[in-house]
Amino acid sequence: MHSKTPHLFDEATRITAGDSRWQGHTSDDYWAFVGPFGGTTAATILRALIDHPQRAGDPLALTVNYCAPIAQGAFDLDVRLVKANRSTQHWCVELSQGGGETATLATAVFAERRPSWSRQVAQFPDATPYEQTLPYPSIAASWANQYDFRFVEGELRIGTTKQDTPASSYSKLWIGDRLPRQLDMLSLTAMSDAFFGRVFHARREMVPFGTVSLTTYFHTDSEALAGEDVTRVLAVADAKIYHKSYGDQTGDLWSPNGRLLATTTQIAYFKA
Length: 272
Hints:
Elements: H1 8-12, E1 15-16, E2 21-25, H2 38-51, E3 58-66, E4 74-84, E5 88-96, E6 102-111, E7 147-153, E8 171-177, H3 185-191, H4 198-203, E9 209-218, H5 222-228, E10 232-238, E11 242-243, E12 246-254, E13 260-270
Antiparallel strand pairs: 1-2, 2-4, 3-6, 3-9, 4-5, 5-6, 7-8, 8-10, 9-13, 10-12, 11-12, 12-13
Helix pairs in contact: 2-3
């Protein structure tokens, strides 16, 4: 018999519908060092859009700008359809707390994906199977312990002897929910932010860090993603530059079946 208890991820991204303003609540199970895990915030915003009665199509792109810290507790989502045509919808979502200023500002594009010529140029990365890859140990942040990280390459190594030159920022790893949950657009969104900060890998130490802006591009639709019938992704993450307190992060998320599901890019603050 299957448990009817909601998955912690669904609880963390749960929303209550309103007219134009929707409500959500932070989750202690997905808390980072100084605020909620940005991936669950992004997924909560996407849930409000997917559940909106005016929504048409599937998410094509989502950009989330983290403007200010989100405190523990309730928050409001002001959801607005900015522009719609036959193929696409453009949305804006503002997250605020206590009737105050905006803490997070997001834009999203939804699209009616129609049959067309297709070609996947990118090649599925070589990787040891999930079952043959060791899980990464638990860490202090509660959000990370909701995921099963299994590094194929570029494992996060903190506290090792510092080198004269920075270590590689590149990682290849399997990511799945600790309690397995079938992958959908919401969990795909959260996993696009589930890479550890690339600066942690490069410096081999934890430094003050926070995502400023996250963009995820979706290369599948809900029906095709459901057809994959998977609970994990193979993720590849890297960085190109760290300069004057900010650095980029990029990532590719693959189905174990060899399909590129999403790509993501971020700009993040660090202090080092």
